[in-house]
From TrEMBL:
Transmembrane segments: 12-29, 36-56, 62-82, 94-117, 123-143, 168-186, 206-224, 236-253, 288-308, 314-337, 349-372, 378-399
Domain Cation/H+ exchanger transmembrane: 20-400
GO cellular component terms attached to this protein's record: plasma membrane
Full protein name: Potassium/proton antiporter
Domain of life: Bacteria
MF term (GO), any: flavin adenine dinucleotide binding
Gene3D superfamilies: 1.20.1530.20, 3.30.465.10
Membrane topology: Multi-pass membrane protein
One of the protein's GO biological processes: proton transmembrane transport
Length: 494
């Protein structure tokens, strides 16, 4: 009697083949402007029970586990690549978007779900919470693959927001699950949370997440420095050390009642900046871990979907998706960023690139596992929202960035630089009275100040390359910076 290895070889054959097909299809699809992540999701769906593959897969617990681990790895990788300098322009708007923005998105999208899906208010707001946050995996990968260089303010805001808004979405989802179970009279459900319960839980989530993430980040950075060259292995050993530490912090923080997502992202940011030289060698391997996490997560989530069930709620779900993309996200971004003096083009672009990815689908597994009645509908809605976001928003990032003028020219492209900054280049130390006399422009109130000082006061926000304002009939723009100091300015007349 021989031992059969079918239990090993058949699942391995299926899994490896799906990843191979997805990557190959992704390489070809990116040439047409489609996202790798979209391909993984579609391949998983086609391999599922209603597709040509016919695979029966309904293990929500495994998908939930894989999804959370994968998101932790992706957030850690994104944090390691986030430079402290980006917080100069991106921290304040990102915090607003990750908190107030998510709440506003949840409310407006929940109202759309209440009307379109004929749900009770607790269930409708649960739908809004599930799809209320942008996705780190989608934002990090699609901004990188879009081929456009965004101005620092826009890029920093999008990246930091996507790394910080998951805790609020998780918190709102768990809160509305509790409310929904109470309303449905599920046995064992606790009473609905009071306002004090909500506040204390929020403080616990963010407090533990921030404290443990920052503390572990400093500790890991110091450890990497002390290990020095003794841990070299082409960066692979360092990456394995960092990933295992990140997952430990994620699990420990979640176990203590904090936000594991916030903790692992904060840990990545601190470690990546405090031990920059040691981390740099591991980034290539970390990129591989992040891509493997994305592939596995999107394939599993695609396998969970049954298109025949999806069709029953397709049109209402599309309505919820459009309400999110065209109403909820733009309004929440405007409310958060307009007081910070973001211009209309930046607000429009950040609104459009509110990408939804794996996070809403992972969050949609929460009510399924909690036993909320009608939870499969939430999963179907989340899938439609993600699919439309990756298809419509993800494939138009480069086009919309150029159309709205938030992309910067390549350093060697002189012709494009002239189109963006104008034909004339001046030293930022030029006095305003000399500048206005030479070009025949109106004098500002304080003509003795230099061009950099005047430009900074006119912008009313931390300047970045690409910022511009008007001086009479001339457009004056920031062309070069050294740290926080404007060094060269471009002028377009007429």
């Amino acid at each position: 009697m021989s031992l059969s290895l079918d239990f090993l070889t058949l699942p391995l054959l299926v899994a490896a083949s799906l990843v191979f097909i997805s990557v190959l299809a992704g390489v070809l699809s990116t040439r047409m402007g489609f996202s790798f992540l979209l391909v993984f999701l579609v391949v998983g769906t086609l391999a599922g029970v209603d597709g040509p593959g016919g695979l029966v897969f309904d293990d929500f617990r495994l998908s939930f586990w894989v999804g959370n681990v994968a998101l932790a790895v992706i957030l850690l990788d994104g944090g390691l690549r986030t430079d402290f300098s980006t917080f100069r322009t991106g921290l304040k708007p990102s915090i607003l978007l990750a908190t107030i923005g998510v709440v506003v998105c949840t409310g407006i999208t929940g109202a759309a779900a209440y009307w379109l899906l004929d749900l009770s208010w607790p269930l409708a707001l649960l739908v809004g919470a599930i799809v209320g946050s942008t996705d780190a995996a989608a934002v990090f990968s699609l901004l990188k693959s879009s081929g456009v260089k965004l101005n620092e303010r826009v890029a920093a805001t999008l990246e930091i927001e996507s790394g910080m808004n998951d805790p609020m979405a998780v918190y709102l989802t768990l809160t509305f699950i509790t409310v929904a179970l109470t309303a449905q009279g599920v046995a064992g459900a606790v009473a609905g949370p009071t306002a004090l319960d909500v506040l204390l839980s929020l403080l616990q989530q963010f407090g533990w997440g921030a404290a443990l993430g920052m503390g572990s980040g400093f500790a890991l950075a110091e450890l990497l420095k002390r290990l020095g060259r003794g841990v070299d292995g082409g960066g692979g050993i360092r990456a394995l050390l960092v990933v295992s530490a990140g997952l430990t912090v994620f699990a420990g923080t979640t176990w203590l009642g904090g936000s594991g997502f916030l903790a692992v992202y904060a840990m990545g940011v601190i470690t990546g900046n405090m031990a920059r030289r040691q981390v740099r060698a591991a980034l290539s391997a970390m990129d591989g871990y992040a891509w493997l996490s994305q592939a596995g997560m999107f394939l599993l989530l695609g396998l969970l979907v049954t298109p025949t069930g999806l069709l029953r709620t397709l049109w209402p779900a599309l309505g919820v998706s459009l309400a999110l993309m065209l109403v909820a996200r733009p309004l929440s971004v405007w409310l958060c960023l307009a007081p910070l003096h973001f211009n209309a083009r930046e607000i429009t672009f950040i609104s459009w690139v509110g990408l939804r990815g794996a996070v809403p689908i992972v969050l949609a597994v929460f009510p399924v596992m909690a036993g909320v009645q009608g939870a499969q509908t939430f999963f179907n809605v989340a899938f439609v929202v993600v699919l439309t976001s990756l298809l419509l928003q993800g494939s138009t990032i480069a086009w919309s960035a150029r159309r709205l003028g938030v992309s910067l020219p390549d350093p060697g492209d002189a012709a494009q630089a002239r189109l963006v900054y104008g034909d004339f280049v001046l030293d930022a130390g030029t006095s305003m009275d000399n500048l206005c006399a030479f070009y025949g422009l109106p004098l500002p109130a304080d003509a003795s100040q230099d061009l950099a000082t005047w430009l900074r006061s006119e912008l009313q926000r931390p300047p970045v390359v690409g910022d511009s304002t008007l001086l009479g009939q001339a457009e004056v723009s920031v062309r070069e910076m050294a740290g926080e100091r404007i060094t060269r300015v471009g002028i377009r007349l007429g």
